Amino acid sequence: MLDQIAAVRIVESATLERMRHEALTAPGPTDWVTEYAQYQSGGWSTVSLMNDTGNPADVRIRDCHPAETTLLRHMPATRDFLSTLDLRYMWVRLARLGPNSFLWEHRDYEELDAVERYRLHVPLVTNRSAVLVTGGRRICLEPGRIWRLKPTHAHGACNLLGPDRYHLLIDCYADDRLAELMAGEWIDDADVVDLPRATEDDVLGYARTAWSLARLGHVGSAETYLLRLFYVHALAEGQVYDLITSLHESLDDSAAAARWREHRLTRLGGAA
To answer: In this structure, how many other beta carbons lie within 10 angstroms of the beta carbon of residue 20?
Structure first.
């Protein structure tokens, strides 16, 4: 588990409170940008604090030598925090995840060069129903810590009940300073819940339920029902996408089946 996610540093409470206030007040209601729509259910939006254009609405990450955006200039506590970390940044964003929202199982950085990099999460506002899932485990990212994620592992996130979850997302390149930050990383047992493995009977039952929904005309609901299994059971990587593909094959919808094979490839990489 430590290879995939771990806490790396405590954030001083006064600093956290100042950054929380800035995250809730600095971006206006219309500033948040919905991007990567194919990876989510809806409800996930971001603004950029560091990128290569200075425009906070430019949120599709890429390799670059970033500078602060116009939004970060109005967030002095967050600006000072990033300066103190002194990392080799690639991109920095604020991310908001609303209630009953999901980031579906995926890998990040697949479209980028094979350079060692990591994502740091700094939870600013969260709740116990807002979790990250990776490796068949559900992890609640507690505020007051910097969390290191290796997003080349398949993972997803959800916020079931709300309120909105706000995280500072820091994509950075590996260097000596980051290695120093990660040297004492840890994870508490209380933060991790092992998801139960789905039996063959479980999977067959879920497939039948999805088929029944689809036959009644609720195809989108059937797809979402299967996608959400990733947050309920420890499944083989990409299994939810294979179940949806099989669903459409059983409905004799070859175009939809091909589309979901492509979704699997786009979100997880590897062979279709």
So the answer is: 19
What is the tally of structural domains in the chain? 2
CB-CB contact of 93 with 44 (8 Å): no
- The reply to whether 73 and 170 lie within a common domain is yes
Domain ranges, residue 249: 200-268
8 A C-beta contact, residue 78 and residue 11: no
pLDDT by position in tens, the chain (length 272):
668 899 999 999 999 999 999 999 999 999 999 999 999 999 999 999 999 999 999 999 999 999 999 999 999 999 999 999 999 999 999 999 999 999 999 999 887 777 899 999 999 999 999 999 999 999 999 999 999 999 999 999 999 999 999 999 999 999 999 999 999 999 999 999 999 999 999 999 999 999 999 999 999 999 999 999 999 999 999 999 999 999 999 999 999 999 999 999 999 986 43
Do 226 and 98 share a domain, yes or no?
no
Domain boundary at 171, 194, 217, which?
194
